[in-house]
Amino acid sequence: MVRVKKIIIGILAVLVLLNLAVVGGLWYLRSKGSESIRSENQTNREGYYVNYQGKEYRYNDDMINILLLGIDKKGNIEDEVQGIQGLADTIILVSLDTTNNNLYMTAIPRDTMVEIRQTDVEGNFVQTTQDKLTLQYGYGKDARESNELMAKTVSNLMRNLPIQRYCTINLDAIPILNDTIGGVDVTALETVQTSSGTVYFTEGEPVHLMGDDARKYIQIRDVNQIGSAMGRLNRQKQYINAFYSQAVQAVKKDLGLPLGLYNALQPYMYTNLTLEDVTYLGTEMLNMHFNPEQLTQIPGEAVFDENYHGGRTVFRVDEDGLQKWIMDTYYTEVTPEEEEQ
Predict the structure, then answer these.
(1) CA 81/CA 279 separation, integer angstroms
(2) Integer Cα distance of 79 and 58 in angstroms
(3) How far apart are CA 181 and CA 260, in angstroms?
């Protein structure tokens, strides 16, 4: 009996040590991720103080901004050739306010007209031109450069807003993300069909998305229908909101889930997020307040431009509205006491 007790105690001791090792490892990764991301805020201060409508504002230095991109490409994301590696069909700026524990997601329409940087096949700068934001991704000579071009262009659009990290996934990543958290429930916002007439979802239909159905719901649109990209963007926003709620619950049950996903997505993802970053951000998001009102779209209007390539829908930004929204979300007014200091 004494021998049995010793064996049981030994097993329990090993289990405790293993648990401490896992917890300690997660704590270490989280600490390193926090240090890495926050150190960039200290060095990237362009536009830190700004004047707006006669008052001085200070950028919230505890804001972490991550650019999420979805590109219409399958296979290994590193297999890229300039100009044909896919368009950026989904563009979301995720902002974590770690001071007030608020999470914001901002959708930027793919058809947003911006100043993009054109490069040659060697990656050398050629010229800037006004064109759709979705096209900027194609000018990188590889995945890293495509991401950096997109991050810079979005930062410029958002008045030099610092973007600390970026993450791009392709079509093959969507079923993995979706199924890892057990699928996502939505009610179809519109009838989803291809230009050939194939119908996948009917407006008002409740659907539990699993596998490739998740990809179909947020990707497919009738390209012959004017404004179909905006309808798809609304579906993407709906899906992201539902996905986030489900994902938070899944991570609470398994804190190692973000790391597992990070590894599973490697062939279909390009990012400058490290394992440390993922661990830190995954645990931070558990404490974040998020509601549908915090999933917004930049101010502007989708219009038909007959002069753009023979007639296409483009998204024109409301510049004044965007400036006000940026100030309200990312900046705080400097008090008289702070000005004296």
Answers:
(1) 32
(2) 42
(3) 12
- 149: helix, strand or coil: helix
Coil/strand/helix, residue 215: helix
Query: Shortest CA distance to 295 belongs to which of 232, 242, 237, 218?
Result: 237
What is the three-class DSSP state of 8?
A: helix
- The CA distance from 177 to 261, in Å, is 7
- In this predicted structure, what is the pLDDT of residue 123? 74
Alpha-carbon separation of residue 240 from 97, 106, 270, 272, 293 (angstroms): 19, 11, 19, 21, 13
Tell me the Cα Rg of the chain: 22
Evaluate whether 283 touches 30 at the Cβ level (below 8 Å).
yes
7 against 174, higher pLDDT: 174
What is the bridge-based pairing of β-strands 88-97 and 63-71?
Answer: antiparallel
Residue 256 structure tokens: 């190692």
**CA dist., res. 329 & res. 108, Å (int):** 16
- Going 205 to 206 to 212 to 215, the CA torsion angle's sign is positive
Tens-place pLDDT, residues 146-183: 999 999 999 999 999 999 999 998 889 999 999 999 99
Burial class (CB in 10 A: 0-12, 13-18, 19+), 162: buried
Number of H helices, E strands in the chain: 9, 17
Q: Is the pTM of this model over 0.70?
A: yes
How far is CA 143 from each of CA 110, 117, 131, 271, rounded to the nearest angstrom?
Answer: 18, 16, 20, 9
